[in-house]
Amino acid sequence: MKAYEALYVLDTELDDESRQKLIDRFKGIVESEGQPVTIDEWGRRRLAYPIDKKNEGYYVLMNFNSDDNVQKELERVFKITEGVMRYMVVNKVVNKVADKDK
């Protein structure tokens, strides 16, 4: 199992109910493998650059542990889901510093 972090930006024109359904849908994809998910909703923030003539997005950060197939499925669903403006899924690598004294 690998540790992943997914950050995605949702369209601010979605109402609260639709936005929550999308968040639950993405969470459900990861939980289908029986892995716990932590979600941190950053909320509405200004974008670094306009996307489709929009200057704000709703940011959501999701941390989870899974196999590669879950990460690939999550990216596939991000691509085809309306309301997702941008997304990024990265593998969180823990740097292990070798002890030079040993």
Task: Tell me what you see in this structure.
This protein has two helices and four strands. The protein is of the alpha+beta class and 102 residues long. It has a four-stranded antiparallel β-sheet, with helices on one face. It starts with a strand and ends in an 11-residue tail after the last strand. The model has no long low-confidence stretch (mean pLDDT 90). The chain is globular.
Pick out its properties.
102 residues, 45% strand, 2 helices, alpha+beta
Quick structural gist:
With 102 residues, the protein is an alpha+beta fold. The protein contains two helices and four strands. Strand 2 (37-51) and strand 3 (54-66) form a beta hairpin.
- Class by SSE composition: alpha+beta
Q: How many strand units?
A: 4
Strand order of the largest sheet: 2-3-1-4
Q: Outline, from the CA principal axes?
A: globular
Number of contiguous helices: 2
The helicity comes to 25-40%
Strand content: over 45%
Low-confidence stretches: none
User: What is the residue-averaged pLDDT?
Assistant: 90
